[in-house]
């Protein structure tokens, strides 16, 4: 078995070799990696399993099935427009290897888990592919069907984990669908593999003494739901458009880019905050390179062309892949020659005011609106006195809470999200904006005071 990691969205898919065939669990949309692995090993991909209807990325099952002829399988308690539903206890045999289906609702109603056994060695479970049911140090979120369903889904999650997964045995290797950094869990541990025994002893969410206590704990969780989740759910239930290949990125001259921008194109500057603050194309949105998978779904739409700007146009393939995995097939091109080509053509530029934490502290007595763009859990650990909290991703829907007739200063964890927020607000007509470099990390490093509620 091989783990395929998709960075940014912290997605895990799995490639299983068994008796001359290959099985793929929860494939990503850019499927070349599975095809190359199968070709290298001389295997045919015959089975594709979806542990659930994923919310945070476009699943690649149809794409992979189109290329290989493999059959797709998923849970029965949701009407998919493709594939074959499976039920509890169904087994798939591949020589000595056996995959057994467990119906494990909780994260979603149709969630399934796959138990892998090597019958030539033992009847015991060797691995379990549990989707978003349980992670390293975490359990799956239960809020995606709405507030009124949280208690019911938490109860189902408890039953699935404690009555179906944990009885598989302490030595069973747990293979979750996500790793650290995923929005599908509150605080997933940085650990690719774990065992059920290790989780039993270390996962605090499994230490609850009763079903009711577990339900109360899960219902009380505060998690963010990016707006693009609805698009992913639609694609993953009804089938996403087939790509065939990754979208072609066009090299654009400043003149063409300017015209497209005036016609509504989305300009995404993927440079570092300091570079963006020093000079940038008016109206561009600053999502730093590594932040694209996490924040594109909060700030970009699926209609208008997306154009990328970097300094040297290096490694844009990674950003293209990240956007395609989120369903942004409207990615169009990039500024040829990078940002220097823009100002060398005498096109207009803008700057963004950047403060150090020392400057922020010196100016705290002045009249401005101090915005904290961190997650709620981070804020609860301490914040700068007088600040107002709006998580970065929620700024577009809570923009009315930010005054337009006052200077706005933004801080976050380290200055990346604060610059993203400022770039978005600038595009919405705000004029007096400042991003704090280093933000809370530097603030604490300087020994400045924080307050807690």
Automatic annotation (TrEMBL):
Pfam families: Lactamase_B, Rhodanese. GO terms for molecular function: metal ion binding; sulfur dioxygenase activity. InterPro entries: Metallo-B-lactamas, Mito_Persulfide_Diox, POD-like_MBL-fold, Rhodanese-like_dom, Rhodanese-like_dom_sf, RibonucZ/Hydroxyglut_hydro. Residues 261-351, 364-452 form the Rhodanese domain. Coiled coil: none annotated. PROSITE patterns: RHODANESE_3. Keywords: Metal-binding. GO terms for biological process: glutathione metabolic process; hydrogen sulfide metabolic process. PANTHER family: PERSULFIDE DIOXYGENASE ETHE1, PERSULFIDE DIOXYGENASE ETHE1, MITOCHONDRIAL. This is Metallo-beta-lactamase superfamily protein. It comes from Methanobacterium formicicum.
């Amino acid at each position: 078995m091989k783990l395929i990691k998709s960075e940014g969205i912290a997605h895990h898919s799995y490639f299983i070799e068994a008796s001359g065939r290959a099985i793929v669990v929860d494939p990503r949309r850019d499927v070349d990696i599975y095809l190359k692995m199968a070709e290298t090993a001389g295997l045919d991909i015959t089975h594709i399993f979806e542990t659930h209807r994923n919310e945070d990325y476009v699943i690649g099952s149809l794409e992979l099935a189109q290329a290989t002829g493999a059959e797709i399988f998923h849970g029965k308690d949701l009407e998919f427009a493709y594939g074959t539903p499976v039920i509890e206890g169904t087994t798939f045999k591949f020589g000595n290897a056996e995959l057994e289906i467990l119906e494990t609702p909780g994260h979603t109603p149709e969630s399934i888990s796959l138990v892998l056994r090597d019958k030539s060695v033992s009847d015991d479970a060797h691995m379990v592919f549990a989707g978003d049911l349980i992670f390293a140090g975490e359990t799956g979120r239960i809020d995606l069907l709405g507030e009124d369903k949280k208690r019911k889904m938490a109860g189902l999650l408890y039953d699935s984990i404690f009555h179906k997964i944990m009885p598989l045995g302490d030595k069973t290797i747990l293979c979750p669908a996500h790793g650290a950094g995923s929005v599908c869990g509150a605080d997933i541990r940085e650990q690719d593999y774990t065992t059920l025994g290790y989780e039993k002893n270390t996962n605090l969410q499994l230490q609850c003494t009763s079903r009711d206590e577990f339900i109360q704990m899960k219902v009380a969780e505060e998690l963010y739901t990016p707006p693009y989740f609805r698009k992913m759910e639609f694609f993953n239930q009804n089938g996403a458009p087939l790509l065939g290949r990754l979208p072609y990125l066009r090299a654009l001259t400043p003149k063409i880019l300017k015209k497209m921008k005036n016609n509504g194109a989305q300009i995404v500057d993927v440079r570092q905050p300091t570079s963006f603050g020093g000079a940038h194309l008016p109206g561009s949105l600053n999502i730093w390179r590594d932040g694209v998978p996490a924040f594109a779904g909060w700030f970009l739409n699926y209609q208008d062309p997306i154009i990328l700007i970097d300094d040297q146009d290096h490694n844009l393939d990674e950003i293209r892949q990240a956007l395609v995995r989120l369903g942004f097939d409207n990615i169009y091109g990039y500024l040829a020659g990078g940002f220097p080509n823009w100002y060398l053509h005498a096109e207009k530029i803008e700057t963004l005011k950047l403060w150090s934490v020392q400057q922020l502290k010196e100016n705290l007595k002045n009249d401005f609106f101090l915005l904290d763009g961190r997650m709620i859990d981070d804020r609860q650990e301490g914040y700068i006195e007088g600040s107002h909290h709006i998580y970065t991703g929620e700024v577009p829907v809570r923009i009315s809470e930010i005054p337009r007739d006052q200077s706005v200063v933004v801080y976050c964890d380290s200055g990346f999200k604060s610059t993203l927020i400022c770039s978005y607000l600038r595009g919405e007509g705000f004029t007096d904006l400042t991003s704090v470099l280093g933000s809370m990390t530097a603030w604490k490093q300087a020994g400045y005071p924080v307050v807690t509620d």
